[in-house]
Amino acid sequence: MSVEQVQVQRADFDQVMVPNYAPAAFIPVRGEGSRVWDQSGRELIDFAGGIAVNSLGHAHPALVKALTEQANQIWHVSNVFTNEPALRLAHKLVDATFAERVFLANSGAEANEAAFKLARRYANDVYGAEKFEIIAATNSFHGRTLFTVTVGGQPKYSDGFGPKIEGVTHVPFNDLAAMKAAISDKTCAVVLEPIQGEGGILPADQAYLQGVRELCDAHNALLVFDEVQSGMGRSGELFAYMNYGVTPDILTSAKSLGGGFPIGAMLTTTEIAAHLAVGVHGTTYGGNPLACAVAGAVVDVINTPEVLNGVKAKHERFRTRLEAIAAKYGIFTEVRGLGLLIGAALSDAWKGKARDVLNAAEKECVMVLQAGPDVVRFAPSLVIPDADIDEGLDRFERAVAKLTQA
Length: 406
Known about the structure:
Elements: H1 10-16, E1 28-32, E2 35-38, E3 43-46, H2 49-52, H3 61-71, H4 84-96, E4 101-105, H5 108-127, E5 133-137, H6 146-151, H7 155-158, E6 168-171, H8 176-182, E7 187-192, E8 195-196, E9 202-203, H9 206-218, E10 222-226, H10 241-244, E11 250-253, E12 264-268, H11 270-273, H12 289-302, H13 305-329, E13 332-338, E14 341-346, H14 354-363, E15 366-367, E16 369-370, E17 375-378, H15 386-405
Parallel strand pairs: 3-15, 5-6, 5-7, 7-10, 10-11
Antiparallel strand pairs: 1-2, 2-3, 4-12, 8-9, 11-12, 13-14, 14-17, 16-17
Binding site for pyridoxal 5'-phosphate: 108-109, 141, 226-229, 284
Pfam family, one: Aminotran_3
Protein name: Acetylornithine aminotransferase
């Protein structure tokens, strides 16, 4: 009997997988649009979006078409060669953003690893070896490699792995005075999420991002925006920096870029990119034709006025209903975020219980996320139908009602 035919259940996870995850008790097996079915045939509405990854829901026809067409052509050639889907995708990203050059990787962590290495390399080449310090925000998240987890401002993810990479400082998010006190001529880069994701769905203040841009310019430091979670239409603009009118020197993207297929991208200028000369950095799978074909289709669908304006309208639909739920049940104090990256902050009585909300929602057949222990996160498909939003929020309200009355 082949492996594919063996019946597997959730219990198998605990027998054969490394125990670094604690997945839900059910296994999704099929998805269509914003609905998912588990092994028992139960149907759930998906407000989790694979943690802001399934930007066009499940099995979107344009993505299925792009993947299957490419699957019948060429899968992998390595970076000894280039390939057509990678070049097409790079052109689309350059045409749509501030960027002039693209580096393709397989994940957000890889895109950030490349961004941080590039920032240090650029500073080393242009200003000398002393300029290597990186400033990031407390409670930020930038990936799980040793470099990216050190830049991320959450000790629970970075502690316990031996000595950390030197020269990384963390300051409070949205605190311009703290940034001004920390930055110096030894700073090579400031790394920020325009909307803190894992840190609780906290959008940056306009004046803060503008002020940080000015500080970076004054100290010859690069401004790096991690848009792994906030990018690719999630905020209602193609990238969140466009909401602010503050342009970074380097931008990273992943998650929604592939619509579910693993891909990451680092975007930058020609001048900065020149410091990743031949052999300086690389990735075996980066620029994979399958991933790039899918991502190209994702860009084509999302980067339209219809979809981006739709994201803004759907945000209001979510916000209005979630604020009504907050008023009725007293479980949330604030609904925040941009576009379809929304956080509902738990009230004092419910602090630390985001996981309980998730579990209650699942029992009512709706999938939601958390952003830390105190925030319930919603990151659905950017093209989720209004009927699915309404039905999903009906289910979510039933979950909240049962939870608060228990």
